[in-house]
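User: Study the chain.
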Amino acid sequence: METTRHFVATVYVVNDGATALHRHDKLDMWLPPGGHIERDELPHEAAQREVREELGLDVSLHAPVGDLESDTARSIPQPQQFLLEDINVADGEVGHQHIDFIYYGHAESRDIDPAPGEADAEEWEWYAPTELEANADRFPDDVVEVGQRAIEVVGGEK
């Protein structure tokens, strides 16, 4: 089986010491906002677009930008992590993977107002670090760990 790979961007959105997660219908797991990077987008642009679509929030990314710039190249905001995620596994073979650019971001409010066709606002929940840990059996291990890191970096539990 040939493995296909897609580039995706994910944002752990933090507000007041908590991060937003929802149960992803297609993947049947709790995840932060994110999705596929369009052909005309840079990863950080896709990350911000996905948050606007899924949460209706503008997010400021905590993503360092290098100082390299020339006539033909420039630095862009760097993700906090890169993950290779197995999405479709059958008979021990991986059919599809996501190469995920993971960003941390800050939103000024928790007023979720998704775009039409996205998960309803009521499907999103905000989790503080202790709540992530207490519900670890509901979430993938990486979601707990990265969610806690994002909250620590963007703004601690209040």
Observations:
- Residues 54 and 117 are 9 Å apart (CA to CA).
- Strands lie at 4-15, 18-24, 29-31, 34-36, 59-61, 81-90, 93-107, 124-127.
